[in-house]
Amino acid sequence: MTAIIEARNLSRWYGNVLGISEINLEINPGITALLGPNGAGKSTFMKILTGQLKANIGEARIFGEKVWNNRRIFSRLGFCPEDDAFYEDLSGLEFLSGLLSLYGFSQAESRQKASQALDLVELADVADRQVRSYSRGMRQRIKIAQAIAHDPEVLILDEPLSGLDPLSKRRIIKLIKEFKNAGKTIVISSHILPEVEALTSEIVLIHQGKIIARGDIYFIRDLIDTHPHMIRIKSAQYRQLATTMAGEDYLLKMAFEPEDQAVVFETHDRDRFFNRLNELLLSSPLAIDEITSPDDNLQAVFDYLVGK
Amino acid sequence: MTTEIKRVFSFYFFLKKKSSRTKIFFLLSSAAILLALVIRAYRLAGHWAENSQIIFQNILMVFFLQFLIIILALFYGTSIVPEEMEGKTWPYLSSRPVSKAAIIIGKYLSSLAVTSIMLVSSLLLSYFILNLDRDFQLKDIWTVVSYSLVLLLGLAAYLSFFTFLSTWLAKPILLGLAFGFGWENVIQYFPGTTQKLSIVHYLKSLLPQYASASGRLSFLFIRLEPTRDWLAVLILLLITVVFLGLAALLFSYKEYLIQD
User: Fold this and answer.
1) Residue pairs between chains A and B whose CB atoms are closer than 8 Å
2) Is the ipTM, as predicted for this complex, more than 0.85?
3) 83-112 of B, contacting A, C-beta below 8 A
4) Which of residues A198, A223, A248 is at a domain's end?
5) Do A288 and A166 reside in the same domain of the chain?
6) Calpha distance B199→B139 (Å, rounded)
7) Residue A246's domain spans which residues?
8) Highest-pLDDT range among A188-202, A251-265, B148-162
């Protein structure tokens, strides 16, 4: 079976700056997440898929057709851009029905579909308010509404969960999953692993314009778990804590920060480390002020994976 | 493509009707009405005896022809592409099933419609404020209609040229200003065929009263070597079609980047 979305040797530069390089990817129905730190090339890839950018080398196809300057495929595709940009003078309903009219729907159909989409993202009660008066979360939700309003077969969502409060996030995740269950193809980008985990197990890791890994969430988790984690603990008894932990075989390094009364541990087994820490806290009078992970972000993991 | 153009036109006409820019330019175009009211009041008080047709021609030549149609075309035309890029709304358009040529032509037509309403309403009202009296004749209606048609032709030509600039340059406003208020003003004072390299030349050729214009501002109207009416209309239409075509063509093949 031919994939819904295909990228063949897709490369794109901005002058001397690399956007993406030799991306080969086939995407089938279901949710596929592009995971990577900011500037990894996720948005460039999505812009090529939505006809905003032309690839310098290679080609992108959706439903077997080339994307660039091919308006036929856009009636089957919905796109939620990353930028917080709108026609601010319009109300939510006008914004949606105006964009829907570009698909050729009549005025009545456009308004009906716009109202349905606003219902789905729970913005029906503010449909007549100008978009400029919407909160960050509401603006994010109306962006999603304009992508789904015409019931497309393919949804391309660039960082759709950013700026949403936890409740809205849960609702949008549910909505995206409903689209998946309806047999649609969804491509979603994010730089936050837990967000992606909540949505799908099909993950493509992108870094510096290249796909560095592709697999299900367990494969990616395994990759990430081989990355040594840093854990910083602030406590008045930080030296005593370090002495107690020093004998553990999963500990790779320790460093003291006496000015902050803190110790930084480096471990390749975070689960065992925290189990031991919990035991210590229960069995001894150790008092801990703060636990942080200085490198617990995707950038650090990616740097590790590409061998920096 | 016609249906796509209609869709884009409807959406943007609605959008422009609601925009604050339209409100500002509507106020600006109403300046002629205010001026006409002031002059009418002044005349009623018996201070200004000059023929009201000539007073109106002066307003027509200075305010409408050399200022209003240029400023409207400049601000609406040069923003057709940059407003989408700077406002970052381009992805909403580029991911819709409408061709890029239809986007340009639809947006052009919506701008033309909005600016035409401003222009014609202001022109008609100011004309009638100045001329609606006992001497008013039915043929005067044809006079003001012909003025309106000439100005609309000019608006269409300028708007088309500025639309082309907006598809070509990232910041077209400066070149547009230099063209609209520099080149177009200066070149009409040149004798011979040089003045035919401007849009305003053909517009002035189409205003019959112009050749015999008199009044306080008549010094502005010297040195015109008019082109025949039919040829002037043809050239203005040609300018409109050629630049709009070029804009649609360029926009279809050029790639536009949203700057972060």
Assistant:
1) 74
2) no
3) 87-100
4) A223
5) no
6) 28
7) 227-306
8) B148-162
